[in-house]
Design a protein that fits this description.
Helix content: 25-40%
Oligomer: single chain
Shape: elongated
Radius of gyration: 17 Å
Distance between the termini: 53 Å
Number of helices: 1
Low-confidence stretches: 80-84, 87-91
Length: 91
C-alpha cells in the first residue's frame, strides 16, 4: 500500500537536495578556478558522486570530468587518503 510522505519528510528531502546542489556548485567553481583562465570559456564540467565497492575506499567518491571544445578532456580527484590524483587524456 502506498503511504504519502509527510510534510516533514518532503521538507527534509528538499533540504537534502538543495544541500547536494550547492555542494556540486562549489566543486564546479573549484574545478573551474583550477583551470587556466584562457581555457575556462571552452570547458564543460561534470560533477557526480560515484559509489565505490572497494572496501579500502570511501563509500562515495566525487568524480569531476572536464571536457573541452577542442576535444581534450581530463579528470581530477582525491583518493581517500587525501592524495591528489590527476588523469589527463587527449585525442
Amino acid at each position: 500500500m502506498f503511504l504519502p510522505k509527510s510534510a516533514n519528510q518532503v521538507a527534509q528531502e528538499n533540504a537534502d537536495h538543495l544541500e547536494m546542489k550547492r555542494g556540486i556548485e562549489r566543486v564546479e567553481r573549484w574545478a573551474l578556478n583550477s583551470i587556466p583562465e584562457h581555457l575556462r570559456k571552452d570547458v564543460l564540467i561534470n560533477v557526480s558522486e560515484v559509489q565505490c565497492g572497494d572496501p579500502n575506499c570511501s563509500p562515495i567518491d566525487t568524480s569531476i570530468i572536464l571536457q573541452f571544445k577542442s576535444g581534450g578532456r581530463g579528470g581530477h580527484g582525491n583518493r581517500g587518503d587525501g592524495e591528489r590524483r590527476d588523469a589527463e587524456r587527449s585525442r
